[in-house]
Design brief:
It comes from Tengunoibacter tsumagoiensis. By secondary structure, this protein is an alpha+beta fold. The protein has two domains: 176 residues, no CATH class; 114 residues, no CATH class. It is built from eight helices and 15 strands. The N terminus and C terminus are likely disordered.
């Protein structure tokens, strides 16, 4: 299966699921299915079908909850509201919902709402060619080149931001992936082939540390520290595939981990970090016409911090 070196995060997530599962198909397969196709055959056909997909509607839902034992967090306040406080122990949960349409890497639109402490933040993004249009929480549109829209802001807000997939890396962790073929499974009233890949710590670490986008956002040392100190991990990728057209209707990534970190050298102490991450991408309206129009009132900029820094200053 040939994978583009640079794909969107949407197709990156879908392809990660497919490649992981393809890599895992040489391992022990559990579960029963009435289909005549093996998991490997389904995934190979799906990889081909998705590479030729012209357009689709996208729905994204996600929840990320973090507990840091012995630490209090103070998130950035939102406009017209006081500074929120987080209960002792550092509990914080971010819920994400989004919807949009895409027709390849150069024609996409997405509306996203991120909610923390019952405080929603709304963002919109349009990608047309080499231009990215972003509407900040205050409703103001900005436009900048794709090459300028990188780093923390792009990765934090853009469901389509770039992700690199190193197929050799995935193949190198075959022994750390376990496959489960659930067979036919009903999803939104449609019978789809449901396949799961369970990842151990080695597989998850390889995927994260080999992705330049994730490393630039989180930091190589932070990834290493967190995963090296992980004492409990439950991580998996699920895909639901139509065995007629072989499109991926849903991809779900789950990461549940508990880690003990030592921050004494930074003036802190030993902290217990518990993270629960669940992200779902649903695709529909395959190959239907997509109309995306650039906002006429977008303000040009070359600095992504103008988009979100202005929002903070306005508070």
């Amino acid at each position: 299966m040939k994978i583009r070196e640079k794909s969107t995060l949407l197709f990156g997530a879908l392809t990660i699921g497919l490649v992981l599962l393809l890599s895992a198909c040489d391992q022990t397969v559990t579960g029963n299915t009435a289909s005549n196709l093996t998991p490997l055959q389904v995934l190979q056909k799906s990889a081909d079908a998705m590479s030729n997909l012209q357009s689709s509607h996208v729905d994204v839902t996600g929840t990320d909850s973090v507990h840091i034992g012995g630490l209090s967090l103070t998130p950035t306040p939102t406009q017209a509201q006081g500074t929120p406080t987080v209960a002792q122990g550092g509990d914080i949960t971010v819920q994400l919902t989004g919807k949009g349409d895409q027709a390849g890497a150069d024609k996409q639109q997405m509306d996203v709402t991120a909610t923390t402490l019952n405080q929603p933040t709304n963002l919109s993004e349009i990608v047309l060619g080499d231009k990215v249009y972003v509407k900040n929480p205050q409703g103001k549109w900005y436009v900048l080149n794709k090459s300028d829209y990188q780093g923390m802001f792009a990765n934090a807000t853009n469901p389509f931001s770039g992700i690199n997939i190193d197929q050799k890396t995935l193949l190198g962790v075959i022994q750390h992936v376990k496959i489960n073929d659930h067979g036919a499974d009903k999803l939104n009233g449609v019978s789809l082939r449901h396949i799961t890949a369970s990842l151990d710590k080695t597989a998850l670490k390889e995927l994260l540390t080999k992705d330049p986008q994730i490393v630039s956002t989180i930091g190589q040392q932070n990834i290493n520290t967190l995963l090296d100190s992980t004492k409990a991990l439950d991580s998996s990728v699920d895909v639901w595939i139509d065995e007629n057209q072989f499109y991926v209707h849903r991809t779900e990534l789950k990461i549940n981990l508990t880690a003990d970190t030592d921050t004494t050298q930074q003036g802190g102490g030993k902290l217990t970090v518990v993270t629960k991450f669940d992200n779902i991408i649903d695709l529909s309206n395959f190959n239907k016409p997509v109309t995306i129009v650039a906002p006429a009132d977008a303000t040009p900029t070359t600095n992504p911090s103008d988009i979100f820094g202005g929002a903070i200053a306005a508070q």
